[in-house]
Write a structure and sequence with these properties.
Shape: globular
Distance between the termini: 59 Å
Number of helices: 13
Radius of gyration: 20 Å
Number of strands: 8
Helix content: 40-55%
Structural class: alpha/beta
Largest sheet: 4 strands, parallel
Length: 307
């Protein structure tokens, strides 16, 4: 039995837990390759026209795994807390993948979290282990070990983020969902270019989620999307320690369009660049905008006026 893991959407949230869980239970798995033009094009062919860029990329990774494994792990989040919601693309992935690839003999391995239905993260891993022939006690123990490793990684990332705040370089807080920031076809190119320009890139996602939620409450009590609230909390915590903010979003993202509008209206006196990625090739236009944005920051640092 070999499990395939698509490198998209919730992959960037759960891959440390999945890998530790599978290794502890001696489950064979493979991960789809890093995103490239061919994977993006495959997803573009599978998705409906109105789909957002991350969903198209995710479907491209599922397509890449067809015939390479026995089952493909498809995560779904209905609600990430009893009163929290997530984007509908997270809520529909299992049914969407099963329907899109229904004629290609796909075997979906579901990973389902829905606190509103009593399916918390522990239950999700126990059900995942059961589907792979593991006992409840085995799965619970493996999940406990994976969770401790994951929390240790989170603490280290946050400690590194705090240490980077003391850098003498121009500090820019990069704000976006992990599937946009860390995908090689989207955010990684932007991160690498900023570093080449001598910028200290600070990842908003490196602040631990519950802490970020705490800071977000100073600005909103009603925003329904968990991941967007966490990003907002990171901005509120670090806005006085950075020289600028980049909001990285994918084209056609509803939650981001509303959250980013709130940020632009509420955060004053700090240069903010909103970048929308849409799957087009090349970095020429993006590089020009990044260079102009850095010029504005340097002008402000030198005492220039900025409103």
């Amino acid at each position: 039995m070999k499990v395939g893991i698509p490198r998209g959407l919730l992959y960037y949230e759960f891959i440390p837990l999945w890998e530790a869980f599978f290794k502890d239970l001696d489950i064979d798995y493979i991960t789809s390759p890093k995103t490239d033009k061919a994977i993006y094009q495959a997803g573009l062919n599978e998705a409906i026209h109105e789909s957002c860029l991350p969903l198209k990329i995710f479907l491209g990774h599922v397509h890449q795994l067809l015939g390479q494994c026995d089952q493909i792990l498809i995560p779904r989040i209905g609600a990430f807390g009893y009163h929290d919601r997530v984007c509908t693309r997270y809520q529909s992935t299992i049914d969407l993948v099963a329907n899109t690839f229904r004629d290609r003999d796909i075997q979906v391995l579901p990973f389902n979290i829905d606190y509103g239905q009593g399916d918390n993260q522990l239950k999700a891993f126990i059900k995942l282990g059961k589907a792979l022939g593991k006992r409840k006690s085995q799965s619970a123990l493996a999940y406990g070990k994976a969770l401790r490793l994951y929390r240790d990684q989170v603490r280290k990332k946050e400690a590194l983020l705090e240490s980077q705040m003391t850098s003498s370089k121009t500090k820019i807080l990069l704000v976006g969902h992990k599937y946009n920031l860390f995908d090689d076809y989207t955010g990684s190119l932007i991160i690498n270019y900023l570093k080449k320009m001598g910028v200290q890139v600070l990842m908003a996602t490196d602040l631990e989620g519950q802490k970020a939620e705490f800071y977000a409450k100073d600005l909103t009590q009603t925003m329904p999307w968990t991941f967007n609230r966490e990003l907002l909390g990171s901005i509120l915590k670090y806005q006085d320690q950075v020289h600028g903010i980049i909001l990285l979003s994918s084209f056609n993202c509803g939650p981001d369009s509303m959250a980013n509008d709130m940020i632009l209206r509420k955060i004053k006196g700090l240069p903010i660049l909103k970048l929308i990625i849409d799957g087009q090739e090349g970095m020429a236009g993006v590089e020009t905008r990044l260079e102009s944005f850095l010029d504005i920051i340097l002008f402000k640092k030198a005492g220039g006026f900025f409103d």
